[in-house]
Amino acid sequence: MEILLHYIWRHRMYPLHRMTTNKGETVEVIDPGLHNRNAGPDFFNAKIKVDGMLWVGNVEIHDKASDWFLHGHDKDEAYDNVILHVVGEDDMPVRSSRGETMRQMQMDVPEYVTANYSRLLREDRFPPCHEVIGQLQKLTVHSWMSALQTERLEQKTEAISRRVKERNGSWEDAYFMTLARNFGFGVNGEAFEKWAATLSLQSVAHHRDDIFQIEAIFLGQAGLLDEQAIPQRHREEAANDIYLTKLRREYSYLNHKFHLEQMSATEWKFLRLRPQNFPNIRISQLANLYYNRRSNLSQLIECRSVDEMSDLFATHVTPYWETHYSFGAEGKKSAKQLSKQSVRVLILNTAIPILFAYGRHKGDETLTDRAFRLLEELKAEDNSIIRMWKECGLEIETAADSQAIVQLKKEYCDRRDCLRCRFGYEYIKRNGWFVKEEKG
C-alpha cells in the first residue's frame, strides 16, 4: 500500500534488514526529505548514502515500479532529478525523460505497521487509538494538542479571511457576518451568514440610533415579515398585529430607499427548535446588540478577559418579542436574554477567532496571544465526545483542550486519517505490543 510506504519513509520506520537497490547497492537514509503534497516528486531534498556516497535530491515512491510509467514520469523532466525510486514491488526498471535508468529500491512495509494500521481502521470504539492514550508522554500530548489548537484557529481564520474578501476588505463587515453566523447556533448558521451578506451595514448605520428601524431592516432582509414566514396557525392573529404592520410599512420605505434585496424566508429552519432559538428571536437580540454599539470590532478588540467579552455579548430582545415568539402569538413575558452558555459559544466561535485572525492580519502578536490566553481561560465544553477522550486518560480542562479535540475528531478521527495524527503515529509505531498483549 503506497500510503504506508510514504509513512514509513517519512517517519524512518524502515525494515530492520539492510536496504539495497535493485543493483545490490547499500542504502542508508540520512534525511528522508521534505514531504511534497503538490505536483512533483514525493520528497524534496532528501539525503541518502549509496554504497557510502552521499546523494542529495528528490525521492519518488510508488506501490509498484511500473506506476512510474503509468503516471507519465518517464516523460516529465521534473522527475529527472530523482535520486531514488522507492517501491513496494520492483516489477520492472524505470527510466528518466532522458532515457537514463533510475536508481530503484524495493522497501517492504514492516508487518507490525500494517497490522497496527489495519487495526486502527477496523476499530469500532471511539477513539480508535484509545489503548495508547493513557500511556503517552505528557510532552507528546501537549505538543499535539497545541498544534491542533492552532490548526483549528487557522481554519477559522481562513473562513474569516474569505468573508473579508467578499466584503471588499471590510473587517467590520466580516466580523458582523461571523457574529451573525454564530447567532444561528449551528442549525441556522448558514442562513444567518447568508442573511448578513444581504445587509449593507453602511446603509443600516444611517438608522443606528433607532432600534425600531434596525429591527425593521434586519427582519425584513430575513424575509421574516412576509406572510409565508408566519406559522399557519398564527396568521389570523398576525393580520391584526399592529407591530408587524408598522415593521412592514417601515421596511417597505427603507427597502425603497436603499434598494435592498431580501432573502427568502424558506432559508430558515424552525422545525424542532426551541422557541428561544427561533430566527426572529435571535435577530431581535442581534438588533439590540447592534443598536447598543456592542457589535463593533473596536469594542471587541478592547476586551481583555472572558468576563469583559461576556458583558459585551450580553443582549436581549426588543419589547415586542418579550411577549412573543412569533408574530401574532402572544405569550408569557420574558426578557429572552442570551444564556450564559450561548454567550460562551459566541466567545469561542466568534470573538477568539476574530482576535486571532485580525492579529494575524495586522501582525499584532498581542491579539493572537490574547486569543490563546482566552482559550485557556474558558472552561472546556462538556459533551459525549469530550467525555470519551477523558475516559481514555486525556486531560481536558480548558476550551483550548476541547477545541483541540474537536479539531482532532473532525479532521482526523472522522476521516480515519490516523497517518497524519501524532496519536495515530504512537499507536502504529509500537512493534509487537499487541502480540504481547494477546499472549499475556
SSE diagram, text form:
Elements: H1 2-10, E1 19-20, E2 26-31, E3 34-35, E4 43-50, E5 53-64, H2 67-70, E6 82-89, E7 104-106, H3 111-122, H4 130-133, H5 138-166, H6 171-183, H7 189-198, H8 201-205, H9 211-221, H10 235-238, H11 242-258, H12 279-291, H13 297-302, H14 306-313, E8 324-326, E9 329-330, H15 340-362, H16 365-377, H17 384-391, H18 399-413, H19 422-428, H20 433-439
Parallel strand pairs: 5-6, 6-7
Antiparallel strand pairs: 1-2, 2-4, 3-4, 4-5, 8-9
Helix pairs in contact: 5-6, 5-15, 5-18, 6-7, 6-15, 9-11, 9-12, 14-15, 15-16
What does this structure look like?
The protein is of the alpha+beta class and 440 residues long. It folds into 3 domains: 108 residues, no CATH class; 77 residues, no CATH class; 209 residues, no CATH class. It has 20 helices and 9 strands. The strands form 2 sheets. Strands 1, 2, 3, 4, 5, 6 and 7 form a 7-stranded mixed sheet that branches. Helix 2 links the parallel strand 5 and strand 6. Helix 9 runs antiparallel to helix 12, helix 14 packs across helix 15 and helix 15 packs antiparallel against helix 16. The radius of gyration is 29 Å and the shape is elongated. The C terminus is likely disordered.
